[in-house]
């Protein structure tokens, strides 16, 4: 049987200094049936020109403005032709067998629509093996090599998705059009949201520990920037509100409230009072839109409350 086409989508925004390392590692994979799509989010550092001149095999899409991580990757997914989609940050480097190992992890497995590689930092310390959902309503990167449970979903920095899963899990976004990643998020927690929507439909996620990705974490945005505080805090709350079954949401509501108060205090102490306050107001202002999305997501849910609770650790 012929190997299925795998589409590698690399979103970049002012990442010219990283893109060569990333693309070179994608081009020299042991798995050969791939297409590489670079989506440039209106960079101002000549990233698009560099890719066009030096990587003719790669398909280049240049957005007219910075659509953020969510819609920027949606542009690539819509253009992709592969049966499997590999979303990849531009500040990454793949081991040469990475894509082969990802495909081997999902091949022939029932209801598997996602896989998570082993992401290492440049010094080979574990960055993440996937996302896990904690009972108090927030996510945590899996860092234990001996982890014996399926991850909830892959981290968006290197996420392997089936086309079938993506099409089934599409959600209504801006102007109620269908999104893969929720374009209202712009950036942060869109991987958590998509993973939960997929899980609600009964899709599973596999570990692929043999698929190694090196990641220069936070290279484009910076760690704990005002952007990260604003979008990260707001989008986490939207994700819980949109995807949690009602009984589980209200059972854990005191934790969600405590988490919101704790983040307000934390970021105020760290000098991000304006960012976190704006985030809280934006979160509240968007609840009407999220309620409409919630009704759509929950109307299509296939797993029971008990099965959902098993996803939490």
Which tags fit this structure?
single chain; alpha/beta; 2 domains; 12 helices; globular
Provide an overview of this structure:
With 313 residues, the chain is α/β, with parallel strands linked by helices. It folds into 2 domains: 6-215, Spore Coat Polysaccharide Biosynthesis Protein SpsA, Chain A (Alpha-Beta Complex), CATH 3.90.550.10; 226-309. It has helices spanning 16-27, 47-54, 68-79, 98-106, 163-169, 190-200, 226-243, 246-251, 253-269, 273-285, 287-299, 305-309, and strands spanning 6-12, 34-40, 59-62, 84-89, 92-94, 112-121, 126-128, 131-133, 139-141, 158-162, 171-172, 178-179, 204-215. Helix 1 (16-27) packs parallel to helix 2, helix 6 (190-200) packs parallel to helix 7 and helix 7 packs parallel to helix 10 (273-285). The radius of gyration is 19 Å and the shape is globular. The relative contact order is 0.13.
